[in-house]
Write a structure and sequence with these properties.
By secondary structure, the protein is an all-alpha fold. The chain contains 5 helices and no strands. It is 71% helix and 0% strand. The two termini are 22 Å apart.
């Protein structure tokens, strides 16, 4: 049952991460277009400039779970990399319980009213009619971030529990230490 949960969450974050990675390319192209239009043709649209902010937020918030699947978040690896699998499992389990899940819960608690208020008025751009009328949707990405990272944290903790119980967890999507891939 834990293996199925792990695979489901990791697959979800994998698909979302790969999808959102294309948005990074599109963001660069839109930024290039904004610069070209403004400095070559003297044309500018606020909504186009705001779209870059939206894309940037979506890339970082929605791909955080994907980054956790691939062990890409920054952490101090002085001792962790030299540990055996059981030691790493203990660190991942305790880290998830003490740091990751409480941080996700705190972010939800701190932002939920903010997001609800934004939805209540369908908050739009501070630039009025010229901006993107979807600030409420952008703020919702904060909650999606917590959901995806929290679920991935639970999957990481489930993987750790399986390791500690001596059960083989499902194949990892994390690259190995030699960088040979998934």
């Amino acid at each position: 049952m834990l293996s199925s949960f792990i695979r489901t969450i990791e697959t979800l974050n994998e698909h979302i991460g790969r999808l959102v990675s294309w948005l990074a390319l599109f963001m660069v192209l839109v930024q290039f277009a904004v610069v070209l239009l403004r400095y070559v043709f003297g044309i500018g649209w606020i909504w186009l400039q705001e779209s870059i902010i939206y894309m940037h937020a979506i890339v970082f918030l929605m791909a955080a779970g994907y980054t956790l699947v691939h062990n890409g978040h920054v952490r101090v690896d002085i001792f962790y990399e030299g540990m055996a699998a059981r030691g790493r499992a203990v660190v991942d389990l305790i880290g998830g319980l003490i740091f990751l899940l409480p941080m996700c819960a705190m972010i939800v608690w701190a932002s939920l009213g903010f997001v609800i208020s934004s939805w209540a008025i369908f908050e739009g751009s501070p630039e009025g009619e010229n901006g993107i009328p979807g600030v409420f949707a952008l703020k919702t990405m904060i909650l999606m971030f917590c959901l995806l990272v929290g679920l991935q944290g639970l999957a990481l903790m489930a993987r750790s529990l399986m390791t500690l119980k001596g059960e083989p967890p499902p194949p990892s999507r994390k690259p190995d230490l030699q960088g040979e891939g998934v």
